[in-house]
Amino acid sequence: MSRPFVLFLCLVTFLVTDADATPYQCQSPAEVFVTTKDEEMNAHVCAAAERAMVFLAEFAITPRRAIHLNISDAEIDGHGYAAFGSYDSRSDSIELMFFDAILERTENPQMYGESFDLEHYTGAIAHEIAHAVVQHNLKAEPISTGPQEYLAHATQLGVMPKDRRRAIIRAMNVSSWESGDAISDVYMAIEPGKFAVKSYLHLTSTENPLDFVALLLNAKWFYVYVP
């Protein structure tokens, strides 16, 4: 059975790492450690992580401790669904499938209505890095899914090349979140691409983004109402 939309999650998982592999510490950002048999992945992951952290730093969201990222061929159990990336909040660890493994195991994988390619893979890494950095900055625990995914998807789009991001925004054909809207995981599950675009547009255009980020980091419910 094919799975057209590549799934990346923030969920609790038990990571299986290669005992023979030595974690590689990124020069920048130095908080990120990569474990993989394919050393060529190190530079790609570090670059993606740096792009994510530069984007998040604009909103005063910065890492507070080390983040470990393990890349393997193994699929991840997303509570009954095949996931290709996940973040474990207990260990600040990210599990990610190799790009080639995703293509081999999924028929026509897509992200935001486009074919899943290396740029989307970079965005996926940024998405999971965002989950980790957001976790470091929480004011309330546990944070609900909607606020987490708002920031993760906004980051994922934020690190995309401008032309690709603009094309995705045009294709989704939605406006920013507006006052009174409920940012919820239900809408994200139904329309992940539109959820991402609405979140990116809102975060990058709202008049007081730091105030809204503070609201998200304090969220305890399954949804957040836009002021």
Description:
- Helix 1 packs across helix 3 (118-136).
- It is globular and about 50 Å long.
- It has a six-stranded mixed sheet with strand order 1-7-8-4-3-2.
- The chain is 43% helix and 17% strand.
- The protein is α/β, with parallel strands linked by helices and 227 residues long.
- It has two domains: 8-136, Glutaredoxin (3-Layer(aba) Sandwich), CATH 3.40.30; 145-225, no CATH class.
- The protein contains eight helices and twelve strands.
Short structural description:
This protein is of the alpha/beta class and 227 residues long.
Topology diagram in text:
Layout: E1 8-10, E2 24-25, E3 32-35, H1 40-57, E4 67-72, E5 76-77, E6 82-83, E7 85-88, E8 93-97, H2 99-105, E9 110-111, E10 114-115, H3 118-136, H4 145-158, H5 162-172, E11 182-184, H6 185-190, H7 192-205, H8 209-217, E12 223-225
Parallel strand pairs: 1-7, 3-4, 4-8
Antiparallel strand pairs: 2-3, 5-6, 7-8, 9-10, 11-12
